[in-house]
Write a structure and sequence with these properties.
Rossmann fold, 3 domains, nine-stranded mixed sheet, seven-stranded parallel sheet
């Protein structure tokens, strides 16, 4: 190319070697040939280099490999640094160009004599058989659509922010330097498949934990997808990550965590703080709420996903602690089947009915049948399982009851806020998360009693948009929306309210255990969230039925039960009673933390170990 290329095509590559030949082939088929291709292999574990090799005889193709995965932003910035052309275009491995794509985009710059245009986009084929002449509805401009002038701007990198918002990552910076243009012609394809980056980032199928596991990110992440809340693990976990490791206790255990940790994953540090050493062996393909390693708060050493059996044998842990939700069942079962000769404890929370639905019930039963010890998330869950897994009914079976994802005691810190009701004389209740069991007419009934409902969670608001719109129409002055409250703000935020809602359901089991459903057996995560904040919990009076939350709340004296909204209003207006319940919640809130129970769990581990 006399005078060098006009367009540098940047290709970030990670674990998509099977797509790469299709993409590069579409570049070689362009009607315009004055391009160079810069492939940046972002530490791929696959055969990316071998897939690129046939094209390296062409002087226009350059291959760069980063020694470890650094993320799309860093890969593109590296490509920019070695690219030589004045115009930059993008071709992800899984996308492709139609023949005239580069020619149409470059022509918009060449026709711009004043050089005012800085960014041009094309139309795009997407989701197999749909197309858009510009931006795909609900998405930013995609890499494959865009060509722009070389500017001093750089892509946001993983250490700054992880996001699927490409406008925020670069496009907005480039746009600020001049005009944009569109060809209006569909000349490329954005390929729809499960491993697309935005799908890895967006809840509920993706999310921070999905992203972390996919790329094995070893450090805390600042994360904000276009559908979820901003998460700053750097600051959130700083207190844990930056403290020194606890010296091993003389009788400390080597505990291998297997599976996933769900909510409040930092709770396991209570084990490390008592001199036990923690190791992690994690399930693949986690959902957004399945916390897996590398853990952002540190003090847990991960075992490799490949060759894990040999790694476990070298480590020789004292106990395998496998947990927690239904997504972890297949992996925990694989570890159990490996017959490692190490005591195996199975701790399950949510939920047996999902395992039946998903076809993993046989593996769940095996885990209960063959584990050396089992931990039930509620007494009712243990009783129910004993009706369907005969080995659990034996008097000599080692078992413990411990809720699965209790918060760590550090989140109890902070002073209580002044309650809103002290200022306006009306009652204010809170629901942290999905308003399960509360229907819009219920919100209207609450409003008629002068009871406000404060609904937390921006992502959840999006999922419950129709519910919110209907409830607001019925009770315009009594439904209030708030962003997500992180653990370090629980006490300050939720203590403003007179009471908080658990899952609101009417039990229909009539005291017969085999009729129980998940609502009857479960301790919802918000139970601990509200309790550690000193907030009395609200639930329907299910007297005569088996209901785990009802039993626990009655035992601890930390909530209210009612049959009608009118009865709830009467109880909330009983100042003396409410003050007594509120103070009791505040006094007993530590009992709803993992730290309170960790010594009991360790003693259970020791019993399991000694009985093997």
């Amino acid at each position: 190319m006399p005078g060098g290329p006009t367009v540098s095509v940047l290709m970030p590559a990670y674990d998509q070697d099977r797509f790469l030949r299709r993409a590069v082939g579409s570049l070689f088929a362009q009607t315009r040939c004055d391009w160079e291709l810069v492939v940046v292999d972002d530490g791929s574990p696959d055969a990316t280099r071998r897939a690129v090799a046939p094209y390296l005889d062409d002087a226009r193709v350059r291959y760069e490999r980063l020694p470890v995965n650094r993320g799309m932003g860093a890969a593109l910035n590296h490509a920019m640094a070695v690219a030589t052309a004045p115009l930059l275009a993008y071709l992800p491995c899984d996308d492709l160009y139609y023949a005239e794509h580069l020619e149409r985009l470059a022509a918009c710059f060449e026709d711009d004599e004043e050089e005012e245009v800085v960014l041009v986009s094309s139309g795009v084929q997407h989701h197999y058989n749909r197309s858009a002449r510009g931006r795909i509805p609900g998405h930013p401009l995609q890499l494959v659509q865009v060509m722009h002038r070389r500017t001093p701007d750089r892509w946001l990198e993983r250490g700054e922010l992880v996001t699927d918002d490409l406008d925020r990552m670069l496009w907005d910076k480039v746009r600020s330097r001049g005009r944009t243009a569109e060809t209006g012609v569909v000349s490329c394809e954005w390929t729809d498949h499960p491993d697309q980056r935005h799908k890895l980032l967006q809840e509920p199928e993706g999310g921070l934990n999905t992203y972390r596991a996919r790329f094995q990110v070893p450090h805390p992440i600042r994360f904000h997808s276009t559908v979820g809340n901003a998460i700053d693990e750097v600051e959130h976990y700083r207190r844990f990550r930056e403290r020194p490791d606890t010296a091993p206790a003389p009788d400390g255990l080597k505990i291998l965590l297997v599976g996933e940790l769900a909510y409040n994953p930092e709770r396991v540090l209570a084990l490390e703080e008592r001199g036990h050493r923690l190791y992690g062996l994690w399930m693949g393909d986690p959902y957004w709420y399945n916390s897996v390693g590398p853990l952002p708060f540190g003090h847990v050493e991960d075992l490799p996903g490949r060759g894990w059996q040999e790694a476990v044998q070298r480590l020789q842990p004292d106990v395998v602690y496998a947990l927690l939700n239904w997504q972890a069942v297949p992996f925990a079962h694989r570890v159990l089947e490996a017959d490692l000769g190490i005591p195996f404890v199975w701790h399950f929370k949510e939920g047996p009915f999902i395992c039946i639905e998903k076809g993993t019930w046989p593996q769940l039963v095996d885990l209960y049948d063959h584990a050396d010890g089992v931990v039930h998330s509620s007494p009712e869950m243990g009783d129910w399982l004993a009706t369907v897994v005969p080995s659990l009914a034996g008097a000599d079976r080692l078992s413990l009851v411990l809720d699965g994802d209790l918060p760590k005691a550090e989140w109890l810190q902070g002073e209580r806020s002044t309650r809103l009701s002290e200022n306006d004389g009306e009652m204010h209740t809170v629901v942290p998360g999905r308003p399960i069991g509360l229907h819009p007419p219920d919100v209207a009934a609450l409003a008629r009693e002068g009871i406000h409902l404060h609904f937390y969670g921006d992502f959840t608001h999006g999922q419950w948009r129709q519910w919110t719109e209907t409830a607001r129409r019925l009770a315009p002055h009594h439904l209030h929306l708030h962003p997500q409250a992180d653990q370090d703000s629980w006490v300050r935020e939720f203590s403003q309210y007179d009471a908080g809602w658990l899952h609101f359901f009417e039990s229909r089991n009539g005291g017969e255990l085999r009729r129980a459903n998940w609502d009857d057996l479960n301790y919802p995560a918000r139970l601990a969230t509200l309790a550690v904040s000193g907030v009395p919990v609200l639930q329907r009076d299910n007297t005569g039925s088996i209901a785990a939350t009802q039993s626990l709340v009655r035992e601890l004296g930390i909530g209210l039960e009612f049959g009608t909204v009118g009865e709830l209003g009467q109880q909330l207006r009983d100042g003396d009673r409410m003050n007594a319940v509120r103070e009791n919640v505040w006094r007993r809130r530590r009992e709803l933390t993992f730290d309170f129970h960790v010594d009991r769990l360790v003693e259970f581990f020791r019993t399991v170990i000694s009985s093997r």
